[in-house]
Amino acid sequence: MNKQEAYKILEISSSASEEEIKKQYKKLAKKWHPDSNKDPNATEKLKSVNEAYNFLKNYKEQPDQNYYKLENINTYTKISFRESVLGTKVNLKYNRTVKCDDCNGNGSLKDKSCKDCGGKGIKITRQGNSVMSQTCMTCYFSNKTPCSSCNQLGYKDANISVSVSIPPGITNFSTLRLQGIGNYIPGNTMFFNEYTDVYLSVEVEEEQNMKIIGNNIYSECTISLLEALNGKELEVKTIEGTKKINIPLKTKNKDEIKIPKLGVANIGDHVFVINVEYPEDISSLIKLLEKQNDIEFAEKYL
User: Fold this and answer.
1) Residues 274-286: pLDDT tens digits?
2) Taking a C-beta distance cutoff of 8 angstroms, is the pair 146, 179 a contact?
3) Tens digits of residue pLDDT in 59-84
4) Rounded to an integer, what distance in angstroms lies between the CA atom of residue 103 and that of residue 139?
C-alpha cells in the first residue's frame, strides 16, 4: 500500500488533515462494521479501511521516515582506468527497504491469533445490560498478531553491502542497471521482481594519453621526421606497465602500431597512433630534396 491507495480507500483527498483522516476513518469503520452491515464484503472492506488508516497514521506520526519506497535506488562508485579495461568487482553499501522475515511481508504473524481479541478482530465490552463491540485497535481486524519487527508494514529499512561486477570496457560515467537489489515492493502485482532496481553510476579515473574505443585502447606517440624515416625503438606506457614498440622505416603520419591483447578484457589491442612532427624551418630540407630530385632526374634521363 502507498499513500495514494490509502487516501483512495478512505475516500479523502491527499491534502486531508490528521483530524479529517481520523473523522473519515470512524465514519467508514462504522459503515462497514459487520455487526451493522450485512454486505458479504463488509469484513474485507473494514479490513481495508483499517489498513489504510493505520498506514496514514504511522506516516503522519513519522513524516521523516519513508514508509513506502517504490522508487529505484541511485548510487555511485569510482574505479581506476585499468579496472575499467579489465573489469572489476566493487562493494556497494546503501540503505533500502527489505521484506520483513518475521512476518514474510504480511504485517502480521502467521498462524498466531491476536492476543488482545483472541483472533476475532473485534473486542466485546459490557456496560450493565449493554453489549458493545469495537474494532480491535491492536490487529485492526486482521485477526492476527501484528508484527512488531516491521510495525505491521511488512517491510523495514536495512543497510546493505553487496558485491557487484563491473564489466570490462566500461567508459566514464556509464550507468549500470542492477536488477532486483533495490527497495522491496509490498504486495507486488505489477512487477516481475519483488524489489526495484539499483542504478550504479561509474566514474573512471583518467589515464593520461589512453582512451577506450570499442575493444581497443588508443594512445598517441609523437616522433620527429628523422625518426619516422630512419625507424626507432620507442618505450610506451600500457596498462601492464612500460613496453617497447618498433617504429619501422618510412613511417607515415597517422600510421598505427598495435600491441595485441593489451586492450579490453585482454582481447582487444593497444593501438598507438603515430604523429610525425615536422621541423619548424623546412627550407633547408626542401632544398636538399629538390637537389636530390634533380640528381635522380639527370641520372635517369640525361
Assistant:
1) 999 988 887 877 7
2) no
3) 554 444 444 457 888 898 999 999 99
4) 14
Q: Which DSSP state fits 158?
A: E
For the stretch 240-274, pLDDT in tens is: 999 999 999 999 999 999 999 999 999 999 999 99
Whole-structure pTM value: 0.63
Start-to-end C-alpha separation, the chain: 100
- DSSP element (H, E) containing 177: strand 174-178
State residue 173 phi and psi, 5-degree precision.
60, 35
∠ CA 65-68-71, nearest 5°, is 110
Q: Which string of b and e fits 277-299 if b means at least 16 CB within 10 Å?
A: eeeeeeeeeeeeeeeeeeeeeee
Residue 247 and residue 225 in contact, taking contact as beta carbons nearer than 8 Å:
no
